[in-house]
Amino acid sequence: MRSRWGILAILFVVRLTIAFQFQSVAAVAPLLEKTFGVGLADIGLLIGLYFTPGVVLALPGGAIGRTFGDKPTTIAALLLMTAGSLVMATTEIWAWQMAGRLASGAGAVLLTVQLTKMGTDWFAGKEIATAMAIFVNSWPAGVAISLLVLPAIGTAHGAGAVFLSAGALTAIGILLIAFYQPPPATAAPTAASARLDRPALLAVIVAGAIWGLYNVGFAMIFSFGPSLLAERGWSIAAAGSAISLVMWLSVVSVPAGGYLADRFKRPFTLAVVASLMVALLLAWLPRSDAVITILVLIGLIGGHPAGPIMSLPARVLGPETRAIGMGVFYTLFYAAMMLGPAVAGRLAKSAGTAAVALDLGALTVLACPPLMWFFARIVSVRSRRARS
């Protein structure tokens, strides 16, 4: 297949399997509690284990992809995810559930890094913000599908069937990736040319920090928003339904932001303005009774920076450095996503309210615009040096 939009469709569906598998534990949490005699803290640990390998595997994951190639690395990652699901579907020992979850997460890290690099290969210099926005949108799409499908499967056939379903979907991903072809202009990198210069490395680190901090802020809504509403007397079901509005609306706002960034050629302006508005809305949410209005606004605005931010690495990475560069990018992202919720949880426990977690989210999003300015300065200086 040589159509870049066809390739993007393949990458979208394959990446969707990560979100689907991630949500599989939360979808059957009550069943797991009964089956294994564990509590919510254990379920929370099992959920969080999925992201843990990212801190140590994202950077070498880029090197692995550069060494063995796009398709072999992607297939290996999907096989690891499939194996993890099969372990969780067939074991009755909690420790093996954790081992299966870690294996799945490790595969997901390798897959995330590699798929992002592959998408950038095809769209660098042409509709990159739009493409990355569509690519990123596979996450809320995968979670939304899992919320519709997995609870019914779990209720009818048990937790094992849910994990088998996740494994079957990743196996389908293996078949799909067989149709992937690299872009014609991509040449095999040499060892010498695959080294990042210092400005490029710094730029990728800053870009990864931006993506991590923005996602930490966004995650505060899903992680602590229901608790915040429960503190106000909302039922758990009503609170969850209200918070889910953000996810459903982001399915529209994420690609819309990418399109607008490419259409008007001002990705930084769009990302900065949207980030400032989201920070304001996050700070406003714990202090207002207009909950639904604020959540709708977050959903409509919050997705706009995704495409522009995800397109940042393409500004400094060439074909020969993308695998390593995306490894650095995602190392920062996973570190932020691991630490952010943990810090927010401690602050919320100390303050006795989930509102402080939303305030922390507002601060992390507010940190993104100055970092975007710093990124732009790095790229500008690097470009001037290259011309001189």
TrEMBL record:
Q: Which keywords accompany this UniProt record? A: Cell membrane, Membrane, Transmembrane, Transmembrane helix
The principal location of this protein is membrane
The way this protein sits in the membrane is described as: Multi-pass membrane protein
Give compartment(s): Cell membrane
The transmembrane segments are 43-63, 75-96, 102-120, 132-153, 159-180, 201-224, 236-261, 268-285, 291-312, 324-344, 356-379
Superkingdom, natural source = Bacteria
- Does Transmembrane helix appear among the keywords? yes
Give yes or no: UniProt keyword Protein biosynthesis: no
Known InterPro entries for this protein?
MFS (IPR011701), MFS_dom (IPR020846), MFS_Efflux_Transporters (IPR050189), MFS_trans_sf (IPR036259)
Q: What PROSITE patterns is this protein classified in?
A: MFS (PS50850)
Gene Ontology cellular component terms for the protein in this record: plasma membrane
The protein's GO terms of the molecular function aspect are: transmembrane transporter activity
Name the SUPFAM superfamilies on file: MFS general substrate transporter (SSF103473)
Q: Where is the Major facilitator superfamily (MFS) profile domain?
A: 7-379
Record-given protein name: Arabinose ABC transporter permease
